[in-house]
Amino acid sequence: MSGSRDATREWRVEVDRNRCLGTGACVYAAPSIFDLVDGVATVIGPVDGTDEALADIVAECPTEALRLVRSGD
Ligand code: SF4
Q: How many CA atoms lie within 13 A of 20 on its CB side?
């Protein structure tokens, strides 16, 4: 079961609400995936774990509030 075709189902982004400062950088970079709700980043769209741009957004969060994880991990 490798399932690269199921990338959007196998991955998710976790937001550490205690770390997010609501800079909006992730929302600006990927408005189809992130939105700000009550000043905190919230995942609103499907996540493709093979998307390098998304991996960069996660890595560049200034407070390290984002984590790209496999569902089930
Ligand atoms: S880039 Fe990081 S700190 Fe800024 S809104 Fe997104 S999760 Fe929050």
A: 22
